[in-house]
Amino acid sequence: MNSEQQYIELYQQAREMIFSHAPEAMNAVRDEAFENFKTLGFPSRKVERYKYTDMQKLFEPDYGVNLSRLQIPVDPYEAFHCDVPNLSTSLYFVVNDMFYHDEKPKGHLPEGVVIGSLRDYPELVSKYYTKQAKTSEDAVTALNTMLAQDGMLVYVPKNVKVDRAIQVINILKAPTLRVKSDARISSSEPEVARPSAKATPQNAQRQVPDLMVNRRVLIVLEESAEIKMLFCDHAADDRNFLATQVIEAYVGENASLDLYCMEETHHKNVRVSNVYIDQQANSRVNHNVITLHNGITRNKLDLTFSGEGAECQCYGCVIADKQQHVDNNTLITHQVPHCTSQELYKYVLDDKAVGAFAGRVLVEHGAQKTISQMTNQNLTATKEARMYTQPMLEIYADDVKCAHGSTVGQLNDAALFYMRQRGISLNEAKLLLQNAFINEVIDHMQLEPLRDRLHYLVEKRFRGELNKCSGCKLCK
Amino acid sequence: MLEVRNLHARIGDKEILKGIDLVINDGETHAIMGPNGSGKSTLSAVLVGNPLYEVTEGEAFFNGKNLLEMKPEDRAHEGLFLSFQYPVEIPGVSMTNFMKAAINEKRKYQGLEPMNAAEFLKLQREKRKIVELDSKLANRSVNEGFSGGEKKRNEIFQMAMLEPKLSILDETDSGLDVDAMRIVAEGVNKLQTPETSCIVITHYDRLLEMIKPQFVHVLYKGRIVKTGGPELAKQIQEHGYDWIKEEIGEE
């Protein structure tokens, strides 16, 4: 209980340091975020949207936060290559929460397009930052806003189309030097709660502390703008990481956004992601979230139709085993008529993995001619694997077409036997069926190189050849 | 080829096979007939190792190897094939990938390298002709959206690809129109060699007129109660099973 206390104390103690290392536009909303965080506290599991993931517990450990912006020496090009090969020359890195500036030439971006750090564009940041990700409504968003000191800005001006996909590699990397004590979260009762945490000889020699990072992304698409973004999350250290992430996307009239978020980290990694998308009239959004490897993951998507004639497709693909935990929570709000939303989330859970999907579609008064379809299908491979699924429709308009459904099941025994009779071993038959199951959702993904790569990665994953992020040298 | 002795099997608590004896030599074709519920499909399921059935007594040897100790996939690798009465649909697995996996696992079992893509496609093309199967079906998911006739022809296509030593056709003629039945029967005949054998399970004489078994067995209440030549099938077609029941002392 009271996991929030250590963050409140940290903020009170380190407020000056946080402010001095962050841009003004981000500081402007910081105190408000802090007050909101204090009021809200982490939600308990009694709060509907947090029923399946215990936030108190996730934020309880004593993580280090790099508030003094200690430079973490890393050459991402050296340390790392992502399993999704470079889709274009437009490859960017975010190291922890820091937009990585380098001299490597980027592919030509059309005029006016910005892909850079939140630090460098105060006007855009003041205009859009936290307008959707309201700190009064979500404790993690509030915490992220009160601690975030850098982040990534993507801006596409009116009528500009960025043809090549932009790939962003998020790397989690712990500092190799000991973080100053003032940057450490002071736990309320450290000696009792974590006897080994401090002042022991082993710990004094431990050079790489566990780390919390607070990532921030702001995407602004003006009228008729188009961009495809692929975020790949990786951990470059075999440490405990807690990453919070807030993505805010404004999709202007007739604009088009493809957003792919792929996680391929390891079992010590905790990820809490909140994605907010606002869609103006006739815009199009394709949101995809793929969890190939993780520890504990909680992904929240809040998508709002605020202009008529817009449409979104949301696809989710989860493969989890061992003790992994993946919770996808979506809320699609149809505020206006004539919008279409489609959701398909598929999970394959093995060993003692736990999956959760809670999707809610809210059709507000007057949002007539809404079309909405939500599907969640899950395979549990063992008796110990658990899936919690909760598709919800809430409709306040009378001329709509909405459907939702979910299934939890096992591989079809008749199909398995049929394949074995043809000489396909039981393992191979299972693999083919699991692949077939998950491919249905991957086939919907429109970024072709990613789709091909995912087919390959998923197969490798099912074969157990993808035990942790194979891309980074450090965890091999 | 196959030697079955005193085979008993059950599903759940229900005993279905109550002592089957059957010997099949190389190059022979045997028909198994019998009223509904007599155990014909159970016999085929037990021979290929369907885990739903439990063998309680008896033995089965396939080319000298103890069949009942082998995994279903190994029985297939050894050359046993079942044409299913109800072929299973497998959404999301294409016919081509399915066949490739089957062929290459068999090759692995035999210590051979996997077949390369060109060879495989060529083989697939050749074998498809045997049952006049549309090439479009190769890109579709296994049996998904296939018509009844296509499913059965697809079974024989798989048989052609895998070149089994012993094929069991479980009511492959059911649900087929006259033309489709001819295609299936001709396909089966083309695949027969002096080294391969076949068990045809059927209710009707029509398929047997085309496939021409040397032996016809009547299975009733879990036992083979009568064995004869092709003429037995004709008699059953004309008179039904009552006279056989009388012969064995049932009314």
From TrEMBL, chain B:
What are the protein's GO molecular function terms?
A: ATP binding; ATP hydrolysis activity
Check the record and name the Pfam families matching this protein: ABC_tran
Task: Determine if Nucleotide-binding is one of this entry's keywords.
Answer: yes
ABC transporter domain span: 2-246
Name the UniProt key words of this record, in alphabetical order.
Answer: ATP-binding, Nucleotide-binding
Taking the record's annotation, the residue ranges forming a coiled coil are none
Family per record: Belongs to the ABC transporter superfamily. Ycf16 family.
Q: Which PANTHER family match?
A: ABC TRANSPORTER I FAMILY MEMBER 6, CHLOROPLASTIC (PTHR43204:SF1)
Q: How is this protein named in the record?
A: Fe-S cluster assembly ATP-binding protein
Give the organism the record lists. Xylanibacter ruminicola
